[in-house]
Design brief:
The protein is an alpha+beta fold and about 475 residues long. The protein has eleven helices and 23 strands. Helix 2 packs antiparallel against helix 6.
């Protein structure tokens, strides 16, 4: 018995020494990063916790608020799970106003009412664009509608008219990753533009087509052909609710993809437009053009009231949404969840109210309010400022929640660790979890702002490698 106790003590001592050596190595690796030329003018922060106890194992600059980039999505997802629940679903309804005559004429309007579902028409789930349109067509036919003396209206009012958060960069807005929210989101609020570079840098770039076709958007092509290997340096400048897009930058020769994805300026309109176009091809005509509740109110028109619902589409659960939100870093989902959080709390569905709700939620759980300067849900804004200590605290706390397994599944794997990445201009960050070879579990948040040059991630990984 004494021998067993002594052996157990030696094993414990050995494990403890290994863990201590890892932290010493971590400090050395972090100091090497600080001394690196790329970090000369940067602010670099690291916070590592024991995932079992929450004890700080190593921290440096952990109380300095830094731009988070997409690591902020970990906080947004955790807040959404906490407030909305893992089984939360959005509902989109199709209904009509007016009456249907005996000959099948709807003397009124078809109205698509959105609740903010960011997945409607998305290729990631079963409710793909064609599947949704087919479901709506079936419901329209089942209702006996053969002709519409009215319009198809996309009702997007639940989220108001401000689609993008304040503080987003003009160069981002208009591109797929800068797609704003909509009360009636559609196809992740984006469409594609196929491009063909010239045979030399002296030639311009040709626009082949848009997918799907968007005849209501004028595309102004100012693109130049880039040298071979220069890849995609193309940006779309297309403000919300505009119908003119400017393509600027360069498209490299020999590029291996067909084109770029661009933010839909008015997703609710495109949704109504696609349904109208589908019905037209099936012989069900409308006398008025597709429109939205926002446009009607802008033109001093009264938005008709739905008198009969004929179809409801439920979104995937929050657990499924969170998986793709974290795995593929879909900014649209983060902004939508933030507005939904505000709405759930009885507040206006705005980005600011969502951020306020989020900050207050974690403040009530012991996280310093001043450590959470949050102004959007995705981290795309360079104005976000969150400390690595605050983010690490939240990641530690959520491990005990019944939805944590679903949250954890969505975290990507980088450098052999389950960590969310974040990258915007001169910002690189990682946040998540790691289990070392001895079974020790860590919460890890590392962030560098204002570094210079490229290839910084491999140097961040060298720091984190000390935990392996």
């Amino acid at each position: 018995m004494k021998f067993l106790k002594f052996a157990t003590f030696l094993i414990f001592l050995s494990i403890n020494c290994i863990a201590q050596n890892r932290i010493q190595n971590l400090e050395k690796a972090f100091n090497n990063l600080l001394a690196d030329e790329q970090a000369k003018h940067a602010i670099t922060s690291l916070c590592v916790l024991d995932a079992n106890t929450g004890k700080v194992l190593f921290a440096k600059n952990e109380q300095i608020g830094l731009a988070t980039a997409s690591t902020l999505k970990t906080i947004t997802a955790a807040t959404a799970f906490s407030i909305l629940g893992k089984d939360f679903q959005y509902q989109t309804t199709l209904g009509y106003s007016g009456n249907i005559s005996p000959d099948g004429t709807l003397q009124g309007n078809l109205i698509i009412t959105g609740s903010g579902d960011p997945t409607l028409g998305s290729w990631r789930y079963q409710n793909r664009e064609n599947a949704v349109l087919n479901q709506w067509v079936a419901a329209i036919k089942a209702a006996g509608i053969k002709k519409i003396e009215g319009s198809i209206i996309g009702d997007d009012r639940i989220f108001g008219t401000q689609t993008t958060p304040e503080g987003w960069v003009w160069q981002d807005i208009g591109n797929y990753y800068g797609a704003g929210t909509s009360g009636l989101a559609w196809r992740e609020n984006q469409f594609d533009i196929h491009l063909k570079p010239g045979s030399s840098t002296a030639e311009g770039v040709k626009i082949i087509k848009s997918v799907p076709e968007t005849p209501y958007i004028q595309i102004v092509n100012e693109l130049k052909t880039g040298a071979s290997g220069s890849e995609d340096r193309t940006y779309a400048f297309l403000p919300p609710y505009s119908n003119v897009a400017y393509l600027r930058g360069s498209w490299g020769m020999g590029i291996g993809k067909p084109g770029i994805s661009v933010a839909l300026p008015d997703p609710a309109f495109d949704c109504a437009y696609r349904l109208q176009d589908t019905l037209k091809r099936l012989g069900i005509s409308t006398t008025l053009q597709a429109t939205t509740a926002r446009l009607m109110e802008l033109n001093k028109q009264t938005v008709p009231i739905v008198t009969q619902k004929i179809n409801t589409i439920s979104s995937p659960t929050l657990s499924e949404i969170s998986y793709w939100f974290l795995k593929k870093s879909v900014n649209l989902y983060g902004e939508t969840l933030l507005k939904t959080i505000a709405l759930k709390g009885g507040k206006a569905a705005t980005t600011a109210k969502g951020a306020e709700t989020e900050i207050n939620f974690w403040a009530n759980k012991g996280v310093d309010k001043s450590a959470l300067n949050i102004i959007d849900g995705s981290g795309l804004s360079p104005g976000d400022r969150v400390t690595t200590a605050a983010m690490a605290s939240i990641l530690f706390q959520i491990q005990k929640e019944n939805w944590f397994t679903d949250f954890y599944k969505g975290l990507p794997e980088y450098n052999g660790m389950k960590i969310k990445s974040g990258t915007i201009n001169d910002v690189s960050a990682f946040a998540g979890y790691h289990t070392d070879a001895s079974g020790n579990k860590y919460v890890v948040v590392i962030n560098i702002n204002n570094y210079n040059g490229s290839g910084i991630n491999k140097k961040l990984f060298r720091v984190l490698d000390a935990l392996k």
